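Backbone shape codes:
***
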Amino acid sequence: MKVRAPGRVNIIGEHTDYNGGFVLPFAINKYVNVEVKASNLYRFISKNMEPTVETKKLTRTNTWADYIIGILNIISETYKIDFVEFVISSDLPAGAGLSSSAALEVATAYAISKLFSLNLTKKEIALIAYRAENEFVGTKCGIMDQYTVALSKKDHALFIDTQIKNYKYIPLQINPYRFYIINSGIKHKLSNSEYNRRREECETALKILKKANFREITFNDLKKLQGIYKKRVQHVLEENDRVLKTINALKAGKSLEIGKYLYDSHKSLKELYEVSCEEIDFIVEYLKQEKIPGARIIGGGFGGSVLVLAGENFPKIFSKLKTVYETRYPYKISLLNITSSNGVEIVGK
């Protein structure tokens, strides 16, 4: 059986999902493919990564296979799972902020559910993948990535209220523009980065304010905070507001407004949440000077990719950017032409 799960791009709502905020992602037409069949042990083969991993115990291996092993651990709490061979292939760049790990987790859980007739819903699969990432892999992420990879619908964004874990489909109306992704060539590794530290800083801010969650915080509460805690909370509050404004702009067909919110989000992620880097800032500033409607860093930060809202002629502008960027920095950048996609699905028996 072969299953594929898409990567995702978050239009806006960055670093809000683990703070009970609003996010507005959509799935993209770049995928992680997982083929499964019965075996005499657990075998994990990747056409993109080394090494091949074989084991008869679902314990940590400190390899890429831990994303799959984490899923198997959680499903096996409730269901009996026999030995399985996994063959993984992907055209989704790892470390580019496009949720390759969530795609692998969700594809694995969906494949196992189908292989063993477990009848798990896609929402249940998303929550299993969320637990695996947090409890087994150790990245304290929110639910956005797993929800988007599992539940998305083509030609729609997914508006998720991560506080109550509800979601709605929002039509992607951005004519005459479209979305592009620039991969900066700088790979990040969330579990070994500042990502978990940002989450801890937000949790500390909640304790200082004596609030149970970010929904209880108002802009007036910023007066009670100082330093990094004030900056982190201010970003989350303003970013939540930008998500709602972006949804209104989508519904009204006001694409240029969406671009403005992208630039505002990047400024906040750079100055308040401090998860950008020199190379990404250079890309965004270059695009702004070229009068591109919108751009911002996406993903966990400290590298990864830039989401761009632009017209059909953007590849020509990117060619100029590529020359300047690669002269200035020791990285190769690439342009991904993306369209929206459905969430996880079976693509072969």
User: Anything to note?
Assistant: The domain at 2-171+341-348 is CATH 3.30.230.10 (Ribosomal Protein S5; domain 2). The mean pLDDT is 94. The first helix runs from residue 66 to 75.
